[in-house]
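pipeline stage [seq->struct] | target=Chitin-binding type-2 domain-containing protein | organism=Drosophila navojoa | residues=309
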Amino acid sequence: MFRLIAVLVIASLGFIAAQGQDQPKCGACLAENEVLCVSETSYYLCFDGESFGDELQCTGDTVCSNAEAVCVPKTQISETVKNVCGDASIGGCGKCITSNKYTCVSPTQAARCINNQIAGVINCKGDEICIADVEVGSVCVPQCAAVYLGKNATCDEDAEYTTPAPAPSTTPSSEERSIICNEASAGVTGLYFYTYADESCKNGVYCQRPSISSTDWTTTFYRPCSAPTPYFDTLLKNCVATKPKNCPVPTTTAAPVTDSSLAPVSPTIVPSSTAAPVSDTTAAPVPSSTAAPVSDTTAAPGSSSTAAP
């Protein structure tokens, strides 16, 4: 009986030892070829379990693997030669893979993957570690089961997931909504109305005041729209699929444009064509051609030719 138990124990230990060999991990130094694959096509060299040097690139249609040649064609990927950062059966710390719903982001944290992006983080229970390439069940595996399977946590001990900072809020504040309502109230005779939050017309603002003349907007709220109805229609008071016709058109003043095709031309000074003053060509006075007065040719009275008596 004791001999049978001993045989079973030895067999179990042999199975665990066989399973206990480290699986190649994306982002970790590989024992087989001493490189650290950081993506399907790039890697670092390793020495004594630490990466060093510059990031190196695989060429052509090759991927980073655990083979001695490091970069191998995808046709050579097999049960023993792994596409370290692209094999769905291996996973990777913080890496979402198309065929998997979950990945690991730290030794004790799993993450839900949607569209190959981390959508949320889950903490494993106190006695569990996260193993991305587990074949059956949850990626949060009890440590005793991990020991039996000969598997380690996908992420290194120093791996830490940092939640990405949320994008700045585009929702206008109460003060900003009041400003929007004031600007849109010109000509509006009602106590309440909808207006556009901005010129994109993808969001609306509800405005309400106690009287027509009041600028105290007692009630305002924001109405964002998203696909498949990304636009807000102030007339229909709802989100719609197409941009409404009453959406304000952005006003932009065009900057003065200089015709760069014409080089600046210096003004040409043309000599004045006005003739120089000409001396008066009027002929000098000509002596009058009127004949000088002629003495009367009538014979002077002469002595009478009548004979004296």
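stage status: PASS
auto-comment: The longest strand covers residues 50-57. DSSP finds three helices and 15 strands in the chain.
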